Amino acid sequence: MKIAIGICGIGYGHSSRQLEVARRLVDMGHEVRILTFARGYDRFLTTEFADRCHRVFVPWIDCDARGVRWFTTARMNWRDALPGMILNRRTFASLRDLGFRPDVCVSDYEPVTARLARRVGVPLVTLDQQSKFLGYQIASLGGMSRQEERSRLAVFFPTAAKRIATSFYKIPFPPDGEFRVDLVPPIIRSDVARLARTERAVDPRLVLVYLSEYKQRNSFVDIRELARTLGRLGSWSLRVYSQEVTAEEAPSANVRILPTLKQEFLDDLGRAAALICTAGHTLLSEAMCLAIPVLTTPLFTYDQHMCAHVIDDAGVGVGVDSEDEITEERLDGFLARLDEFRSTILSSDKLLRADPEDVLTRVCDEIVSAA
Predict the structure, then answer these.
(1) What is the pLDDT of residue 130?
(2) Residues 133 and 212 placed together within one structural domain of the fold
(3) How many CA atoms lie within 13 A of 187 on its CB side?
């Protein structure tokens, strides 16, 4: 079977999840092609899918609770729209020339692959974390509403043979009758799943810090000011992963600043006693899988604010919103409760969890059955 997987290239979470799906589908004997952009494209060029990865153009779609803001969307994309459409036509032509006509298309928040599915007349499976806001009547939060994501998803994917949403937390809200979405526990990358199956050698004083490169949308956190605050926690060892500041800018000996290197970050994640991060769904899912307490500060999106709210509400860490500051007192309070948070992670009935192998098998079986 031939399967096209479209992946949102913003951040690393979508790519990490779909790399696991692609590898499992190949192991099952299927032919897989990847369509992605930005960081996602760069990421897949470093994997075994480098020669099966195709760049696409995805415009930025501006939405609010009332729907798509078409004028703003056009203004934001006018320079790139024509070259982008040409790129997508060439990508479709390249697939055709390679004799690759998919039997099913999978999209992780990436609309070009959905258009490919419509063009060749094959089923579309959406597999992402955002679709939970399409399929469930989740409440508004901090002045933000699920309607913005719902509007964007309805434009990207008006029809789908199957919609699957991953989530590290349970949804205590009724389904949305217009769209059926199946909820599954998070897809955890294999190297993190292996860590979870063994007893981690935790350094009780190690705190890992990672703020998304897209944090310019989260202006209330300044990485340099945060590093200075962390530097005053002299009894803790802080490893800050950031490309915005250099190692020479570390404010004190207990703070080390590193680039976002994959293996070194994973090694530190395996040893960390605590995590301070933006509220990306994938990293929070991995932290819950490894029972790492989290202090999380969301970007200005409904998805990230909901993730931060769940962390706080479930008692598995601290969610800091845009009206708060990450002060020395707040950090001290968080670090003083690590044992409590860790115990709650292991016992909370608000988290959605399952064996990562079982989740991956279930998702891939659903993709194949849709065809």
Answers:
(1) 94
(2) no
(3) 25
Quote the DSSP letter at residue 189. P
CA distances from 166 to 102, 108, 125, 131, 222 (A): 24, 11, 13, 8, 30
Which residues are registered as beta bridge partners of 4? Answer: 33, 105
74 lies in which domain range?
2-186+354-370
Q: Are residues 286 and 179 in the same domain?
A: no
User: At residue 370, what is the residue type?
Assistant: A
Checking if the pLDDT of 122 tops 80, the result is: yes
Res. 218 pLDDT band, cuts 50 70 90: very low
Alpha helices in the chain (DSSP H): 13-27, 38-44, 70-97, 111-120, 132-135, 147-156, 190-197, 223-231, 262-271, 281-289, 302-313, 328-335, 338-347, 356-370
DSSP 8-state class, residue 209:
E
Same-domain status, 223 and 127: no
Backbone angles phi, psi at 317, to 5 degrees: 165, -160
Contact 179, 241 (CB under 8 A): no
**SS3 call for 175:** strand
* pLDDT at residue 317, as a whole number: 97
Tokens of residue 110, six digits: 């990436």
State the DSSP code for 136: B
| pLDDT tens per residue, range 161-204 | 999 999 999 999 999 988 999 999 999 999 999 999 988 899 99
Q: Which residue has the tokens 């089923």?
A: 123
DSSP conformation class of 176? P
Domain count, the chain: 2
**pLDDT tens digits, one per residue of 45-85:** 999 999 999 999 998 777 666 667 777 877 877 788 788 89
| Residue 180, phi then psi, degrees to nearest 5 | -90, 125
Residues 194/368, Cβ–Cβ less than 8 Å? no
Give the residue among 279, 275, 284, 274 at the shortest CA–CA distance from 300.
Answer: 279
Residue 364 above 70 pLDDT?
yes
The pLDDT of residue 161: 97
Pair 337, 358 in one domain: no
Q: Provide the 8-state DSSP code for 247.
A: G
260 and 333 both lie in a single domain: yes
Cα 66 to Cα 63, 145, 306, distances in angstroms: 8, 10, 20
